[in-house]
Amino acid sequence: MTQPETASPTGPLAGLKVLDFSRILSGPYASMVLADFGAEVIKVEPIGTGDETRNFPPFQEGLSHYYMALNRSKKSIALDLKSLEGVKIARELARQSDIVLENFRPGVMERLGLGYETLKEDNERLIYCSITGFGQNSPHGNKPAFDIVAQALSGVMSVNREPGQAPNKLGIPLGDMAGSIFSLFGLLAALHERNATGKGRHVEVAMLDSLIAMQGYLSQIYFVTGKSPQPVGTQHPSIVPYGSFPTADGHVIVACLTERFWHNFARCLDLEHLISDPRFALYQQRLDNRDQLEPLIHARMKQETTAYWLESLEKFDVPSAPILSIGEALDQPHAIERGLIETVSHPQVGDIRLVRGPVRFDGMAPSASRAPSLLGADSAEILADVLGYRAEEIARLAKAAVVSLNDSSSR
């Protein structure tokens, strides 16, 4: 079963060709963003199993939620990369590509005959991106790396908790996504350079490096004080008041990053005298005396409901928010008005909802997405249209299990 016809991709990367060997999350997120920007992405998957995430529950009519979330607007070709002919096809595709993306452990692509040095001989303009857990020369070497491993080694888990509680991972897979996000920075920089030089680059990104790079001021606290930041839950290590505050029936987020917002908040609480209190007048004083200030705020806020405080905080121009569930966040008016959710038609599943990319150009959201492909659904089209294979040759390759033309039984 083939995809419904869709309009040609539009966007600043229209015409760019990406060959994507990556799987699971670190890598597929990056190639999906490239597709959002208009690039043509061909995803290479193993015959029979495909990307491992095709088998991750829960499912919508047999299609994995995980695969749907990370593989819109890509074409799927199922190849046996352990066969000489499968590698030959992959090299032919790389020869016509602008970008190759992979996230295997170091050395895997070289053993397959698809490493950067090999593919560069065929295409000097090729930009080749490798996302690994730890990089080529890490003491961690070839250890398997997943999101939670990167989070643990980055220090992030040590502060992602309430004081006295067990370390906790972030609710979103930022270890994986950080690798994808920084790979996009590197790829776009390499594309800009190639416009001037005509030559590609090998872009290398490690998940652990990327997550450490995202620590921001937390790293600098350690460099400045010599002490690792301690967990403060939803609070801020150096800004007070900031975080989740209890109400009569729930919690409200308040973030007073400037003195003006602190003054507004104190007035909102009917505690204006705290503004001139020498214990709380300035940033450092509030930080030093947070154990005295926060109980005063808690006691006042517990006297009114969440709805009351949200209305009052908005009236006094205090940065604030309710704490929404994932479903509430997706259904809120902001997501609807901004067009963040789209519905696409899938040939097997029917209508599916997806979250759109957040980047807009000239005020326009990304063009309509193409539904995630079934495994190998585009193999014949790619072989014929991209590489010029004749029908009988495609049939021979399918019979020899070098390529799968459309395994509709696979998710």
TrEMBL record:
Q: What InterPro entries would the database entry show?
A: CoA-transferase_III_domain, CoA-Trfase_fam_III, CoA-Trfase_III_dom3_sf, CoA-Trfase_III_dom_1_sf
Q: Cite a single Pfam family from the UniProt record.
A: CoA_transf_3
Question: What keywords appear on the UniProt entry?
Answer: Transferase
Q: Name one GO molecular function term.
A: CoA-transferase activity
Q: Transferase: present as a keyword of the record?
A: yes
Stretches that traverse the bilayer: none
This protein's superkingdom? Bacteria
Which protein, by its recorded name, is this? Formyl-CoA transferase/CoA:oxalate CoA-transferase
Per the UniProt record, the source organism is Roseibium suaedae
Organism classification, top ranks?
Bacteria, Pseudomonadati, Pseudomonadota, Alphaproteobacteria, Hyphomicrobiales
